[in-house]
Write a structure and sequence with these properties.
Length: about 230
């Protein structure tokens, strides 16, 4: 039985908080600034090197994702790490088929106009070039050994937070990522043999940037544009 399901069905023991660590205000400010500056260097890339990545790095980044806050501690996510070349090729071919339909009629013109400055199209070589693809699935419900279902709560919010943790952890380790969402993504259930209660949430491309990789010259909104203080 999954730990999250166990917690849902029985009241856990409560223990003293020993993991919290407080810092002096000046150190807090420096740590917050350092963390921001590190994340500000992160860029989404679409050109990946084929250089191998240590599996242990991916595993620890996924461990970081697995400690994300989530609804009722039911941990409604599953991660499928794809490193097999043949399987990556299959994912690419299927994704590009969906993307061709998207760019050639399925997508509204407004969305295509928004994507145009980034230069994206239906060609997705990074799905084969990058050493790893991480398919992130959102579990709509849990399954007990006797076949009963356990409802999951705040699934999208929980999986979104875990995905953010994962991207930050991979960047912190020195890897580049790309969030890819072919539309639709249901083919991932079949290709990766995942059960019906798991809904594809996002395909995360992971690896080193290609040599001479280029990225769009864009900026983020200023703090005053995204924050209101009351």
């Amino acid at each position: 039985m999954r730990v999250g399901v166990f917690f849902h069905m029985t009241r856990p023991n409560f223990i003293p908080l020993t993991t919290y660590r407080e810092y002096p205000p000046t150190e807090m400010e420096q740590r917050a600034r350092d963390f921001y500056q590190n994340l500000a260097r992160r860029r989404t890339v679409r050109e990946f090197s084929t250089r191998p990545v240590p599996r242990a790095v991916i595993a620890d980044a996924l461990r970081a994702a697995g400690v994300a806050p989530n609804g009722a501690n039911l941990q409604p996510w599953h991660f499928v790490v794809v490193g097999d070349a043949a399987l990556k090729k299959k994912i690419r071919l299927t994704a590009e088929q969906e993307e061709r339909a998207f760019y050639n009629g399925r997508a509204p013109q407004e969305w295509l106009d928004a994507l145009a400055p980034l230069g994206t199209d239906e060609h997705k070589p990074f799905l084969e070039d990058a050493p790893y693809l991480i398919a992130i699935f959102a579990e709509t419900y849990g399954a007990l050994p006797d076949g009963r279902r356990v409802k999951h709560y705040y699934v999208n919010e929980s999986v979104g937070i875990a995905t953010g943790f994962l991207i930050a952890a991979l960047h912190h380790a020195g890897l580049a990522t790309l969030t890819h969402t072919p539309s639709p993504m249901n083919f991932l259930n079949e290709v990766l043999e995942r059960p019906i209660q798991e809904r594809p949430f996002l395909l995360l491309v992971v690896g080193y940037p290609a040599e001479n990789c280029h990225v769009p010259d864009i900026s983020k909104k200023a703090l005053d544009d995204i924050v209101t203080w009351k």
